[in-house]
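Protocol step 4 of 6: structure prediction from sequence.
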Amino acid sequence: MRVLNFMTICFLVFSFHTTADAQSKVKETFVKGILKGQPGVTEILLKIPNKEANVVSSSKIAADGSFLINVPILETNLYKLWISDNSNMLLVVSPGDQIEINANSAALTFQPEIKGSSETKLLHFTLGEISTINAQLDSIEKVYKANQASPKIDSILPALQAQFMQRDAVKKDIIRKFISINSGSLSCLVFIDNLELETEFPVYDLMDQALNKKYPKNLFVKDFHVKVEAERSTAIGAIAPEISLTDTNGKIVPLSSLRGKIVLIDFWASWCGPCRKENPHVVEVFQKYHAQGFEVFSVSLDRDRDKWIDAIKKDGLTWTHVSDLQYWKSEGAKTYGISAIPATVLIDKDGKIISKKLRGPSLDEKLKEIFGF
């Protein structure tokens, strides 16, 4: 949960302008450096840090560890300097930047010396601060795991929890301060997922406005904006946005067709282990409250229709099911800003959102509060 979740926002394809006019505007930009402690490595790549990790440019590494990568870019963007999955680093590169990297260890991620890019330098300074705290959090977690089966766990657990929460709070304070000062920097995208979207929405909103003003065409910024807008439109008290997808019989079923009922919107998939584990509990509450006006509207992030329908039958899910079989590109998931499943949204009879992220006992308690038993 503490790992920087930057990759969750990088499922984007970066494109280059290739017209003669555009090429004439490209400033000479390069990344060069010296790598030490990298025996046998002969090439270094510059990538767009999305899931496909598109290669923008590359350089051979000389015998003395030196390299030079020319970067034909028009606009500031995020990049990843990459040798391997264990040796890479993020960069913020602007047209005309002449960045120098001096890596004194076998891993690019370990305190590299950076010149020629103030944003990249700031990014790695903050990464260093957070990495130190993450190491402390890891140590606390290791103590817990080493003692969780011990009789003394009950006596040491409160202190461990207090230590963990205190260090985690410090990390989040660092991130809030960083974003408040640098809200228009693309490097904020690296850190923001450490803050909970719902509870930290003002921070997200500040960053969204600043980035949209400065980089309105940047694809990472556009993707982030969609996420923020989804949260804005699905806040507690808002009318639930419409979802209108195909059910298992090929019929389009809108969420609004259940207006007048208490509805649990359940985002799940047949391939999602935690979702399948939660399904028996959803079956239980459905059977308990259905006669009183409770419905479940399940939105699947599946991509295989047969597996989706088979899971519905095996788990005994006897309520409304819809899907566009688009996996994480599901329109329903996009509309509600869903980035992890299982996820739930509870709406009242008027279609107003009254709660989110209800599972297990928390779902029981909320439904008991609504129905009175």
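Step 5 (inspection) to follow. The first strand starts at residue 30 and ends at 35.
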